[in-house]
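Quick illustration, no need to memorize.
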Amino acid sequence: MKGKILCPIDFSESSIEALKYAIEMANKEGRGVTVLYSYRLIQPDQEEEILKFRNRVELRARERFCMLEPFFHNGTVTDHEFLIEIGFFSDCILRQVRNNQVDKIVLDSNMRRLIVERPHESFLGSLPVPVIIVGGDTPSP
């Protein structure tokens, strides 16, 4: 089997559209999809304990992902996994590319705003795999 397509999401409408595109591409190319949700453990105005905050965020993410499961079973079953990681999206993306068989990344145009610690163009351009941006008029490599 070929490598996987990594699709970082934040559950916005645009990231769900990018996920649909990634699934369609995976089906055409015989690939699996790794869906990545990342969050920061330390949030501003956080008044609850860290462990409770983490559990609440991750439970909510799993519940939201369950709502997306039908997309993976639309006519054909798409091999997929859902990962939740703590940290900046860019670090989590890089870790997935380095440690797993990721050979393409599909993300929505709004995801760029979540890649905050590095200028998005240089970060995306430095990745050793193609990055397809979905949003606007048409997907672009």
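Residues 22 and 108 are 10 Å apart (CA to CA).
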